[in-house]
């Protein structure tokens, strides 16, 4: 109970810091968010939009009052209004978040299975050497955006095997026949990039943990007692490196979400990364603020889940 209470207090403090950063950071940037509204557009068809914007953000009021209003709106699930989309930020993020979570979730699942399996196999072999992991180390050194652009040039433009951009074909809708297959087809290249970028870190970490645990006295005693190799690997080695792997996956999952944003920008994939690119290019402060809050909160939730799992496993 004490650990649980401490964990709640810790993550509560983190959440408060995230809220403060998401609110004050755009206001520290030069210029006012209102100034980026195109006056010509506003004078033609958007007369009501600046009033809606001012009503939500109340720029004429003190920042302390603005912050309280901001918290009040957040409790209602309202993240404000986008300057470029002329829509609620929550709706725009909700439409993009699903693509990002699908891409990051599949990438982490596949890369974890492959990385843990390969790292353990390499670490369990007699006379295993880190040289075996050298190709993975080289792959890890390649920036994710460079890997994405290289695969796009090769498989999309040179070989024409996969589409170079988007999440589905033009003219396709969720109600269209074959929409799901079309989405999966467009996801092949971005997903491959994410998997290739995540496998090296997981595999190298698993290899090092396996080699270290394999040298422990209790594992040597299990070998001396002539226990089967299957029991030694599962109950003595894998069970002891599992908390370390979960700790690594906690960090790797957050970096995977961040890496997804770069991949989405390269492939024009309609996820959070592409939305952030649009918001940055148009100086859409409310949208940037909403994306920052969403991504940071998501990272906080991921970290909390893995920490809880590690605590539960460590108690057994």
Automatic annotation (TrEMBL):
It is found in: Cell membrane; Membrane. Pfam families: BPD_transp_1. CDD domains: TM_PBP2. Residues 97-310 form the ABC transmembrane type-1 domain. InterPro entries: MetI-like, MetI-like_sf. The chain crosses the membrane at residues 12-29, 97-119, 131-155, 183-207, 249-270, 290-310. The keyword NAD does not apply. It is a multi-pass membrane protein. Keywords: Membrane, Transmembrane, Transmembrane helix, Transport. Belongs to the binding-protein-dependent transport system permease family. This is ABC transporter permease. It comes from Alitiscatomonas aceti.
């Amino acid at each position: 109970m004490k650990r649980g209470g401490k964990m709640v207090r810790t993550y509560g403090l983190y959440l408060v810091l995230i809220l403060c950063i998401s609110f004050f950071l755009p206001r520290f940037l030069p210029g006012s968010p209102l100034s980026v509204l195109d006056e010509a557009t506003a004078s033609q068809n958007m007369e009501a939009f600046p009033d809606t914007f001012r009503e939500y953000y109340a720029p004429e009021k003190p920042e302390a009052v603005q912050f309280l209003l901001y918290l009040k709106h957040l409790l209602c699930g309202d993240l404000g209004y986008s300057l470029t989309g002329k829509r609620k930020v929550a709706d725009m993020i909700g439409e993009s978040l699903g693509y990002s979570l699908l891409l990051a979730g599949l990438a982490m699942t596949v890369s974890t299975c492959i990385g843990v399996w390969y790292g353990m196999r390499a670490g369990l072999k007699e006379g295993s050497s880190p040289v075996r992991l050298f190709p993975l180390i080289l792959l890890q050194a390649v920036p994710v955006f460079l890997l994405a652009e290289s695969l796009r040039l090769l498989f999309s433009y040179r070989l024409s095997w996969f589409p170079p951009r988007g999440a589905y074909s033009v003219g396709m809708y969720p109600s269209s026949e074959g929409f799901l297959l079309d989405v999966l087809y467009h996801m092949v290249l971005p997903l491959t990039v994410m998997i290739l970028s995540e496998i090296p870190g997981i595999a190298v970490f698993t290899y090092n943990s396996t080699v270290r645990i394999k040298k422990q006295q209790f594992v040597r005693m299990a070998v001396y007692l002539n226990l089967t190799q299957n029991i030694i690997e599962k109950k003595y080695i894998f069970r002891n490196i599992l908390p370390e792997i979960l700790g690594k996956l906690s960090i790797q999952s957050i970096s995977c979400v961040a890496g997804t944003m770069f991949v989405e920008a390269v492939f024009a994939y309609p996820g959070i990364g592409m939305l952030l690119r649009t918001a940055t290019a148009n100086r859409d402060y409310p949208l940037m603020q909403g994306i920052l809050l969403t991504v940071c909160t998501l990272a906080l939730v991921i970290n909390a889940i893995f920490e809880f799992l590690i605590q539960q496993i460590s108690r057994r």
